[in-house]
Amino acid sequence: RSSDAGRTWTKIWSKPSTAAHTGHLAVDPVNPERLYVSVGGSGVYRLNGATSGSVDAGTLSATPVGSFARPGPIAVSPDGTLYVAELAGGGADGSLSRSADSGQTWEDVTDDAYRSAAAFPDDLVVPDPGTVYVALNGNGVIIGRPSP
Q1: pLDDT digit string (tens) for 109-130?
Q2: In whole angstroms, how far apart are CA 57 and each of 53, 60, 75, 140?
Q3: What pLDDT digit, counting tens, does each position of 17-75 carry?
Q4: With b meaning 16 or more CB within 10 Å and e meaning fewer, what string describes 54-75?
Q5: Helix (H, G, I), strand (E, B) or coil at 114
Q6: What mean pLDDT is predicted for residues 87-105?
Q7: Is pLDDT at 91 greater than 90 in this prediction?
Q8: For a tag on the chain, would you pick the N or C end, based on fewer CB atoms within 10 A?
Q9: Exposure string for 24-40, b = 16+ CB within 10 A, e = fewer
Q10: CA distances for 46 relative to 40, 51, 65, 124, angstroms
């Protein structure tokens, strides 16, 4: 965490991400003290109050959200909706899920076009609540508009 535009940093968690296309962060624009972390080989976590304290020191909690076996990129839309791209693997296709309640419940918004192209997404951007951009590993970008 940096409070001086990146000149100095404070480590808030020592949780390594174990695979390529993993290890992503997203700040909730509705609640800037809320941070989401996607950790390969582990899952997706919500850190509330992330502007102070440390998970390593025990003054900040990392709460698991969802049950993602292969979490990849994550993003939070301007209205606070959380999106998680799950990588393909173990006989399963890649998928895209969203949560409108800080990770308490999830909706799968994967369609056939996403499934056929997004096995290993590199990044997600959600500039408005109705549009998702998925950067692919060497295969371009998917622009999606999941149903409300």
Answers
A1: 999 989 888 888 999 999 998 8
A2: 7, 8, 26, 41
A3: 887 778 999 999 999 999 999 999 899 999 999 999 999 999 999 999 999 989 999 99
A4: bbeeeebebeebbebebbbbbb
A5: helix
A6: 93
A7: no
A8: C
A9: bebebeeeeebbbbbbb
A10: 15, 13, 7, 17
C-alpha–C-alpha distance, residues 135 and 79, integer Å: 21
pLDDT of residue 134: 95
Provide the token pair at 86. 């799950």
pTM, full prediction? 0.93
Q: Which two tokens stand for residue 31?
A: 């609640």
Beta-carbon contacts of 54 under 8 Å, excluding residues fewer than 6 positions away, are: 10, 11, 12, 13, 60
Structure tokens at 97: 């899920």
User: Is-contact 133 127, C-beta < 8 A?
Assistant: yes
Residue type, position 93, single letter:
D
Give the per-residue pLDDT at 129.
84
Structure tokens at 69: 């076996």
C-alpha dihedral over 145, 67, 81, 108, to 10 degrees?
20
